[in-house]
Write a structure and sequence with these properties.
globular, 2 helices, mainly beta, six-stranded mixed sheet, about 525 residues
């Protein structure tokens, strides 16, 4: 008996190599990446160049090796063969040349997004004998028969009448899915379920649906008809608004490019309009009190937005990535936010921070914080000027602002930054700072390498290093020609505003005799002092 115990202990201490990553040649001749465990194998992330119709293997093999203590070479080995039971999350994601897939009878789990962005996928099949999945009536979709849940679909899918749930990312990135009919049995639409289905033109939600997932129709830029069955007890599309509204609390959950926000909606839910680049006009009714995180992210067709007086909560930048946005205004009666000095930004009066900006924003002098994501993805922002009171810049506040060529910061102590604050901005651009502040900026702003100490102490606003406009004044006529639209403001020496113009590439003004200060906000650039002169 002691001998048996010793042998078992010895083998346990000396055994290695359970759980290996390897390739298996499938019945269709494709090399499939798998990970073997002691009892089963997993189909893992595949090469995105995989093409054609793939039949997954039903088994995989691995070697188990046995070593003496401290030995370099095994004294024995055993070949194990285990069934393929799992297709992992995103296993075939972005395999855009994949045209068909067949799973064996052994597979009992298919992960979320396993076939996301497989844009040419036309055929989905299951071999006989599978106890977990089926493709009933040739529906070209994988149905979990245990839960009546559609796990993955393709551009040729039809949804069987027994399905009660569509899984997260089931149709994500299926760009050529032109139409889909949701069955009356459906109750749940998962997160990102139809994200990126750009060919969809209409979408109807049946009466039994009680849950609509996060970003389930994001980036469906062609969607112009969004309706809810009138018998649905949870959601509605009141007044033909082309949106999904939670009936009980008047929250707009999902919108589209053709949405007209109803006058009784109180909240725009997070990511409700993400990626609708054909959304050109937007009117927020006076009933709105909340605009949640990233509500209109990547609506690149938007050029202007007005925040009504009723709004008292704005989440993480609702207009992140709105690259065409030039005008942001806030109703003067709003008690929480404003757009002071025509700054083209949303300013939180309670804490002195910019919540949301655009490519035409002029950061006001009394700004103390730049909120997380405030300028996220604004590719047309060319220059950043941070007034001397700014002491904190949130995470990813300027991330994705790839067009920035100059930064000017007036604070003698570098503002605190957070994770990814300047991600995507060239680290070699010129960062203009006050004389004597190099040590602070070098320590805190490690993203950048080219600090220029040419901002004199005592100067509230730095002069620009280059201009993309021309100023001419003759006989009382001021003319400014610019490379892109920019606004103009003219003050007298008391600080009284005499003229304010909308952004234009050509501006002509007749000025009275006197001394004037002309301020130009160079398109996506900061306010800069152009001249002080007697006319």
């Amino acid at each position: 008996m002691k001998r048996i115990v010793y042998l078992l202990f010895f083998m346990a201490a000396a055994t290695t190599a359970v759980g290996q990553n390897d390739w298996v040649v499938s019945p269709s001749g494709h090399r499939i990446r798998v990970s073997c465990g002691e009892y089963n194998a997993f189909v893992t992330q595949q090469d995105s160049t995989m093409a054609g119709h793939v039949a997954l293997p039903d088994s995989a093999s691995y070697w188990e090796y046995f070593f003496e203590p401290d030995a370099d070479w095994p004294y024995d080995s055993v070949l194990h063969t285990v069934p393929v039971t799992v297709v992992e999350d995103y296993a075939f994601a972005h395999c855009r040349r994949l045209t068909g897939i067949t799973i064996p009878a052994t597979v009992t789990h298919i992960g979320y997004g396993a076939f996301s962005y497989c844009t040419e996928l036309d055929s989905m099949a299951v071999l006989p004998g599978n106890s977990a999945y089926a493709t009933p009536q040739g529906c070209n979709a994988y149905i979990d028969t245990r839960e009546n849940e559609l796990i993955c679909g393709c551009r040729r899918s039809t949804i069987p009448p027994t399905v009660t749930s569509i899984a997260s990312r089931a149709f994500q990135g299926i760009e050529e899915l032109a139409a889909i009919v949701l069955p009356d049995s459906l109750e749940v639409i998962g997160n990102y379920a139809f994200d990126g289905c750009t060919a969809l033109r209409s979408f109807h939600i049946p009466a039994k649906v009680r849950s609509v997932g996060y970003m389930c129709l994001a980036h469906c830029r062609g969607l112009t008809s969004l309706t809810v069955d009138p018998d649905n007890a949870v959601f509605d599309s009141r007044g033909g608004c082309n949106a999904v509204v939670n009936t009980a609390n008047n929250w707009l959950v999902v919108g589209c490019a053709a949405t007209v926000i109803p006058g009784d909606v109180r909240r725009i839910d997070q990511n409700a309009f993400v990626g609708f680049d054909s959304l050109r006009q937007l009117t927020l009714p006076d009933s709105i009190v909340e605009i949640c995180n990233f509500a209109f992210q990547d609506c690149t067709g938007l050029t202007s937005i007005h925040i009504p007086a009723s709004v008292f909560y704005i989440g993480n930048n609702p207009f992140a990535g709105c690259t065409s946005l030039d005008t942001i205004t806030v109703d003067s009666a709003n008690t929480k936010y404003d757009s002071r000095s025509s700054c083209n930004a949303i300013y939180d009066k309670n804490n002195g921070q910019i919540v949301s900006g655009c490519r035409s924003t002029v950061i006001p002098n009394n700004t103390y914080r730049i909120a997380p994501y405030a300028f996220y993805g604004i590719e047309g922002l060319h220059r950043i000027v941070l007034p001397k009171n700014v002491f904190s810049i949130g995470e990813e506040a300027f991330a994705g602002c790839t067009g920035v060529t100059t930064i000017i910061s007036a604070n003698e102590t570098a503002p605190q930054v957070s994770w990814g604050t300047f991600d995507g901005i060239d680290p070699d651009i010129a960062v203009h700072i006050r004389r004597g502040s190099l040590a602070s900026y070098t320590e805190r702003w490690s993203h950048f390498h080219n600090f220029v100490e040419d901002f004199p102490v005592g100067l509230d606003e730095p002069a620009p290093q280059e201009k993309d406009y021309r100023v001419v004044f003759r006989a009382g006529l001021l003319t400014i020609d610019a490379d892109h639209p920019l606004p103009l403001r003219i003050y007298d020496l008391t600080g009284r505003l005499l003229h304010s113009t909308v952004p234009a590439v050509h501006t002509t003004l007749h000025l009275p005799t006197g001394t004037h200060v002309v301020l130009v906000q160079a398109g996506c650039h900061p306010v800069e002092k152009v001249l002080t002169t007697s006319f």
